[in-house]
Amino acid sequence: QVHLVESGGGLVQSGGSLRLSCAASGSLYSIDIMGWYRQAPGKQREFVATITSGGSTTYANSVKGRFTISRDNAKNTVYLQMNSLKPEDTAVYYCLRRNYWGQGTQVTVSS
């Protein structure tokens, strides 16, 4: 069992920044890939970014160049630095580790 707790969401104006965190606990493996997904109202959950234990990253085209995923393996925590936020980034952001999901954190970007 893995428990994931996201934090850092909130309301920000267009062009602003937020940093999300996701702390993991439980049955963890150092090789676990961690990732962020998001779900906007009325839409399906979509991929945002992933990072391997070695630090290799992958991003959705929609966030490339604006978002940065990172992780602290010692703290079992993954981060998502979001810059130049746009209203279309508004969504609930979810952390994923193996097949476990966090509860989500709301990000709202006002125009």
How would the global form be characterised? globular
Let me know the number of strands: 11
N- to C-terminal distance: 40 Å
Written as H for each helix and E for each strand, in order along the chain, the element string is EEEEEEEEEEE
Share of helix among residues? under 10%
Total count of helical runs of at least 4 residues: 0
* Structural class based on helices, strands and sheet pairing: mainly beta
What is the makeup of the main sheet? 7 strands, mixed
Indicate the low-confidence ranges by residue numbers: none
- Mean pLDDT over all positions: 96
Please identify the oligomeric state: single chain
Radius of gyration, in Å, reads 13 Å
Give keywords.
111 residues; mainly beta; seven-stranded mixed sheet; four-stranded antiparallel sheet; globular
Task: Record the SSE blueprint.
Elements: E1 2-7, E2 10-13, E3 18-26, E4 34-39, E5 46-51, E6 57-59, E7 67-72, E8 77-82, E9 91-97, E10 100-101, E11 105-110
Parallel strand pairs: 2-11
Antiparallel strand pairs: 1-3, 3-8, 4-5, 4-9, 5-6, 7-8, 9-10, 9-11
Structure description:
By secondary structure, the protein is mostly beta strands. The protein has strands at residues 2-7, 10-13, 18-26, 34-39, 46-51, 57-59, 67-72, 77-82, 91-97, 100-101, 105-110. Strands 2, 4, 5, 6, 9, 10 and 11 form a seven-stranded mixed sheet that branches. Strands 1-3-8-7 form a four-stranded antiparallel sheet, with no helix packed on it. It is globular, with a radius of gyration of 13 Å. The termini are far apart. The model has no long low-confidence stretch (mean pLDDT 96).
